[in-house]
Design brief:
Blueprint: E1 12-17, H1 19-24, H2 29-36, E2 41-46, H3 54-57, H4 59-66, E3 70-75, H5 81-85, H6 87-105, E4 111-118, H7 127-144, E5 148-153, H8 156-165, E6 174-176, H9 183-191, E7 194-198, H10 207-219, E8 225-227, H11 250-260, H12 264-279
Parallel strand pairs: 1-2, 2-3, 3-4, 4-5, 5-6, 6-7, 7-8
Helix pairs in contact: 2-4, 6-7, 7-8, 10-11, 11-12
Amino acid sequence: MRRFDPARRLMLCDSHCHLSMLDERGVSTEDLFSIRLKNSFSHLMDIGIDCDDLPGRIKFRDLAAKNSICLKFSAGVFPSKDSILHRKDCIQQLGKNIDFFKGTTGEAVAAVGECGIDHHWNDESLFRDERDLFADQLDMANGLSLPVIVHSRDGFKDTLDVIASVKSSQKKRGVIHCFSYGIDEARAFLDEGFMISFSGAITYGGKAKNAVSSRLCNFIPEDMLLLETDSPFLAPQKFRGRVNSPDLIGEIYKFVASARGIPLDQLEEVVIKNFKSLFCK
């Protein structure tokens, strides 16, 4: 096993954060980039959840560039009740804002999402239309040759069924963000071509839960692993109860590196390589 060099500064990567939500919760994104992330972060993915949120998030692009951080953007519609009920209008507006972003910045968005299935908050009366909203975004991603960032909570079967049912003209690419299932479910998503991303939730629980989480961490192939904060949600165990932010992702790196029995700097290289392979093409 290669030994970790404590004198070497890690360059971390957060594949899923919500920068505008940090602003709303009193976390200065100016300080975040210029002080807390500077010289320790290489890549960030700012995630969309609403068909209209992309224009307001473009402001973070220059802030990240000024501090030598590669910031990528996704655009998608989260399966909220309102979005599900107005899914056709949402999809149409999402497409317009993706075109607007490219026209304004000269760059395409890096992924569609987050989108998917949430049976925790949505009741059964919404499930069919929820699946349709998800399928529409998978179709959009296919048409744009983009990967998909998938939200799946208490809805493994529906999530997998929609992914499997959507025809694709190319190899399916994407990530199941904030993965909350077990090894069998991970295997099924991996077989569909989707990476697995762990958030601060992987650090939760006592000794028995941590043992289960460690086995899950070990199961994911090296080239299919990503890490995220899902900021401002799900702060790692050490900081649980406070507003989460990308600079706390080190705790997730430590847990996953320990579980996999590898040095932190080796995990750093794995995550950055996977981030680039999925989002920087």
